[in-house]
Amino acid sequence: MQTRKLTIPDISARKQGPPLAMLTAYDYSWARIVDRAGVDMVLVGDSLGMVMLGHTSTVPVTMDDMVHHCRAVARGIEHALLVADMPFGSVRSKRQALANAIRLVQEGGADAVKVEGGAETANIAAAIVRAGVPVQGHVGLTPQTAVSLGGFKVQGKDATAARKVFDDARALADAGCFSVLMEAVPAPLAAEITKSLAVPTIGIGAGNQCDGQVLVMHDLLGLYDRFVPKFVKQYAKLGETATAAIQDYVRDVANRSFPAPEHSFHMKDEELALLLKSLR
Ligand SMILES: Nc1nc(=O)c2c([nH]1)NC[C@@H]1CN(c3ccc(C(=O)N[C@@H](CCC(=O)O)C(=O)O)cc3)CN21
Ligand SMILES: CC(C)C(=O)C(=O)O
Ligand SMILES: [Mg+2]
């Protein structure tokens, strides 16, 4: 595995080449694990509001939440390109979007930001790019506007809806985005969009013809049990493994088999005698 830090040109070059693997991380220890496993891009997703903070949507996530988690992740990454989500309400105007994108880079240590939306946010994406911050667009199912979309639902299912996803992706690419992420769209539509864009597409629930894939780390590892979207493959059941380990710990504490002598600090007999005497 290459250990040098990946750059935007490295990502762009993968339009021709092996698909890009992207995965979320939200803290330092997991960022190290994800980075060392060879992921190309680490996403500090606003999904942290759901899997880390227990909200039922990504809407309550603030810029402060994003910066807090992003800083921790940045400390754990040596190889991957670090992308941070612009949270709900952080791109209401160009001026505000610029300030927030710059904050994620300067304070959070992000290499790039991701903005949900399509044609309607293309001018904002372009302004962020002009300020020197690489932008990844996010089209299809955009969880920050899930209420307007009717929930966490597949997008682009009929001709009109497919045209909208296509135009959104095109608008973001034209705005200068280095990549476009497509969430929950039919695989054939994602394949067409991938062929027509010059920048790499990253899919989640968008079939295997995208230029890369992304998943939420907790879903991949089986650490989140509130729902499992159809597009998730659980590569492990760490939630179950952790529960069993902690149950063992609780049992060992109850029956005094933990801590064992090797986990305890000991004294020589003469030191103990002296100590006990002085305590009396
Ligand atoms: N843990 C987690 N994983 C994610 O992938 C994720 C988050 N959280 N939070 C933010 C959004 C929300 N996402 C979701 C959530 C649920 C579905 C889901 O259950 N979809 C249905 C299809 C519904 C329909 O089209 O009728 C499915 O069966 O997969 C999809 C995307 C993706 N993002
Ligand atoms: C699901 C991915 C694409 C995301 O935006 C997130 O984790 O917030
Ligand atoms: Mg997100």
Automatic annotation (TrEMBL):
Keywords, sorted A to Z: Cytoplasm, Magnesium, Metal-binding, Methyltransferase, Pantothenate biosynthesis, Transferase
Thylakoid as UniProt keyword: no
Residues annotated as catalytic: 183
GO CC, alphabetical: cytoplasm
EC number from the UniProt entry: 2.1.2.11
Annotated metabolic or biological route of this protein: Cofactor biosynthesis; (R)-pantothenate biosynthesis; (R)-pantoate from 3-methyl-2-oxobutanoate: step 1/2
Cofactor note (record): Binds 1 Mg(2+) ion per subunit.
GO biological process: methylation; pantothenate biosynthetic process
Gene3D superfamilies linked: Phosphoenolpyruvate-binding domains
Catalytic activity annotation: (6R)-5,10-methylene-5,6,7,8-tetrahydrofolate + 3-methyl-2-oxobutanoate + H2O = 2-dehydropantoate + (6S)-5,6,7,8-tetrahydrofolate
Pfam family, one: Pantoate_transf
Binding site for 3-methyl-2-oxobutanoate: 46-47, 85, 114
Keyword Transferase: yes
Cofactor: Mg(2+)
Subunit details: Homodecamer; pentamer of dimers.
Stated family: Belongs to the PanB family.
Stated role: Catalyzes the reversible reaction in which hydroxymethyl group from 5,10-methylenetetrahydrofolate is transferred onto alpha-ketoisovalerate to form ketopantoate.
Protein known as: 3-methyl-2-oxobutanoate hydroxymethyltransferase
